[in-house]
Amino acid sequence: MNRKATRDSVVFSISDLQREASQKLSTTVREYYNEGAMDLVTVKDNTAAYDRLRLRPRVCVDVAKVDASTECFGSKVAFPLGFSPAAMHKLAHKDGECGTSRAAAKFGINMLLSQYATDSIGDVTAMGAGAGNAYGMQVCLTEDPATNTRLIRDAEAAGCKSLVITVDAPALGRRLNEYRNNFSLPKHLTFPNMGADMDHSDVVTYDPRKAYDAALTWTKIRHIAATTTMDVYLKGVQTAEDALEAVRCGVAGIIVSNHGGRQVDSAVATIDALEEIVDAVQGRIQVHIDGGIRRGSDIFKALALGADHCWVGRVPIWGLAYNGEEGVSLAIQLLYDEFATTMTLMGCTKISDIKRSHLSRMGPDGGFHKLQDLPDWSSKVAGPILDVHARL
Ligand SMILES: Cc1cc2nc3c(=O)[nH]c(=O)nc-3n(C[C@H](O)[C@H](O)[C@H](O)COP(=O)(O)O)c2cc1C
Ligand SMILES: CC(C)CC(=O)C(=O)O
């Protein structure tokens, strides 16, 4: 893709995209996508928290050439952003997850597919054939081991590089919009990754056997991780304590996430949770983040705090709703341009130049204070503490 593509005449930012996309959706679908659990405290704070961090630009650095590319799941990606797993893209546009996948592949970024996607994992990864970007399959894990095994085998067969186990959903959060609007999947859409007998009522009526595993534990994670060739990531880790458990489990990485504020309302904004987690993990496994990222400068701030990679859930959905696959491409382009511009203005020519000392945060005295750079952990510990396959 031409990374300096033509501009849209209406949409110049993700906030414009959200506004335009939202106008095209019915109340039920708009609220399902845009809202979250209970009073939306965390939905709002996920974005607001980025504004509590400020940038400390360095000047007189030669930034004539800026390289925003990095690596994720063993693939080179255009910049440190990919698509989080989000259910039901076809409610936004008929292009669905396959359209999202084509846009990701053309730009060279990675995509995670929800087990509640409206396109199959095989069809979605086929859209990226030959493009070089990587895919991951997200699973909540159900109480039915046969369903879990089938999902994992399908993902491996489709060429997924990672298995993303969502750990913040032992049950569905209380999304008041879904109750108010009597939300359900329209009859013409299906969950092709879930098998023929699955319909959306299994999800909203909390049939845990079919939809979630309320008894998911670290022991089960270790067993699942040992049964797959894919790299395992845990999505929904929100504390240093659980990040350390993940390190002990020997998984490849974690995604610091509160499910976009759709599970526990009043959960800490992910950018606020990130710091203690990065400090606890000390570089032993990958630390990714999602939730509230709406600008290239947000990606910069997350990397500066120590994240290895960022993901967005609602952004591609708004792109789809606005203009199908082309709308998704527009969304990626905007975030790429904003991120590359932020790097340039901050005096960073490559990803490894981005440091905590580029950030300032408001302290109890009301003043802004520079953050201290992280130590170089790469020389201290290499790789996870334990090899999960060796343990079992
Ligand atoms: C409509 C919608 C559906 C989602 N479905 C899933 C899902 O099936 N599995 C999952 O792990 N997370 C799901 N999420 C959460 C996202 O993966 C991600 O954590 C969240 O959207 C990040 O916040 P953001 O939308 O502010 O970027 C969903 C989010 C949205 C908005
Ligand atoms: C089908 C839903 C359970 C998908 C989801 O995780 C969400 O809506 O946040």
From TrEMBL:
GO molecular function, one term: oxidoreductase activity
Cofactors demanded by this protein: FMN
Domain of life: Eukaryota
UniProt cross-references to Gene3D superfamilies, sorted A to Z: Aldolase class I
Active site positions, chain numbering: 259
Domain (FMN hydroxy acid dehydrogenase) ranges: 6-364
Record's GO cellular component terms: cytoplasm
Transmembrane segments: none
Binding site for glyoxylate: 32, 175, 259, 262
Residues the record lists as binding FMN: 85-87, 114, 138, 166, 235, 257, 290-294, 313-314
Keywords annotated in UniProt: Flavoprotein, FMN, Oxidoreductase
Family the entry assigns: Belongs to the FMN-dependent alpha-hydroxy acid dehydrogenase family.
Name recorded for this polypeptide: Oxidase FUB9
Source organism of the structure: Apiotrichum porosum
